[in-house]
């Protein structure tokens, strides 16, 4: 029986909602748009039109994949962060709204540093944080770094997709080791490292555990390995008075504050996300 795009969307939303998907409305729209090869604007324009049998079958296939646990961002191969469209693959974590606090702080600090500010996105993944900074602080220069070659491929795709080639470069680097001599003199280092305790990985939601890259999740036995390494080794990459900013997991902020203080960082400040969770810790390098 023929169905309109609106009814196809409503049925998909109902099924996702019944399965406990939090963002059922948004995800249903994205699945229908992807299946029909329509932009959001075209989707809303065509709500009253009838979908073809091929589109119906495609939506059914995609919805089944989502209901089995596969995240929508991996199904459609893209996601939005801080207003930027980003290519996404299973080589990188899916950008989350929690991370917008890290991006916001990095943007504000970069603007405060003035024209020509230099920013490093360490453990960049998709490049979402560094690209948000570049797009919203137009006089800065940004370097995206990750150890994963797959992640760097996605970073480069997203630099091109958002037409930021002139001010953003991509470099392979291991956050657990000291920076190469070329990586120095930054005003801001923003880092969203792996921070899930190793023993907790097996208990993560299936959409994370079975699909997202463990290398971008595993923070060691207590989840703090990367905070220790970066605080100890990457301060030398900052200019005097430069700022290191971390995203942290729930309950980790006090430990990260202590780690930064032990490594000589000053003016340590912690910020909450929109849910009231202490999500970002930052400190300045004055040594």
Describe this protein's structure:
- The chain is α/β, with parallel strands linked by helices and 287 residues long.
- It has two domains: 5-68; 95-285, Vaccinia Virus protein VP39 (Rossmann fold), CATH 3.40.50.150.
- The protein has eleven helices and nine strands.
- The chain has a seven-stranded mixed beta sheet, with helices on both faces.
- Strand 4, helix 8 and strand 5 (168-172) form a beta-alpha-beta unit.
- Helix 1 (5-18) packs across helix 2 (24-36), helix 2 (24-36) packs across helix 4 (53-67) and helix 6 packs across helix 7 (128-136).
- The longest helix has 15 residues, at 53-67.
- The N and C termini lie far apart (71 Å).
- The mean pLDDT is 96.
Question: What attributes does this structure have?
Answer:
287 residues, alpha/beta, Rossmann fold, 2 domains, seven-stranded mixed sheet, two-stranded antiparallel sheet, 11 helices, 39% helix
């Amino acid at each position: 029986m023929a169905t309109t795009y609106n009814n196809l969307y409503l049925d998909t939303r109902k099924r996702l909602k019944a399965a406990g998907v939090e963002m059922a409305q948004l995800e249903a729209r994205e699945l229908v748009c992807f299946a029909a090869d329509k932009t959001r604007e075209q989707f809303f324009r065509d709500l009253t039109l009838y979908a073809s049998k091929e589109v119906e079958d495609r939506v059914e296939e995609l919805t089944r994949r989502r209901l089995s646990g596969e995240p929508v961002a991996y199904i459609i191969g893209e996601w939005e962060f801080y207003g930027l469209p980003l290519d996404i693959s299973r080589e990188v974590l899916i950008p989350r709204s929690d991370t917008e606090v890290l991006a916001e702080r990095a943007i504000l600090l970069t603007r405060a540093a003035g024209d020509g500010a230099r920013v490093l996105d360490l453990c960049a993944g998709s490049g979402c944080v560094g690209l948000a900074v570049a797009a919203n602080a137009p006089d800065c220069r940004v370097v995206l770094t990750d150890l994963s070659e797959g992640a760097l491929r996605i970073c480069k795709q997203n630099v091109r997709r958002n037409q930021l080639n002139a001010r953003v470069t991509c470099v392979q680097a291991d956050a657990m080791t000291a920076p190469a001599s070329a990586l120095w003199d930054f005003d801001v280092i923003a880092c969203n490292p792996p921070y899930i305790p190793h023993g907790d990985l097996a208990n993560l939601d299936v959409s994370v555990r079975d699909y997202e890259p463990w290398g971008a999740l595993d923070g060691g036995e207590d989840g703090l390995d990367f905070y220790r390494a970066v605080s100890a080794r990457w301060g030398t990459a900052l200019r005097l008075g430069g700022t290191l900013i971390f995203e942290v997991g729930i309950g980790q902020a006090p430990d990260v504050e202590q780690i930064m203080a032990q490594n000589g960082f000053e003016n340590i400040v912690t910020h909450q996300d929109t849910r009231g969770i202490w999500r970002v810790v930052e400190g300045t390098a004055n040594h």
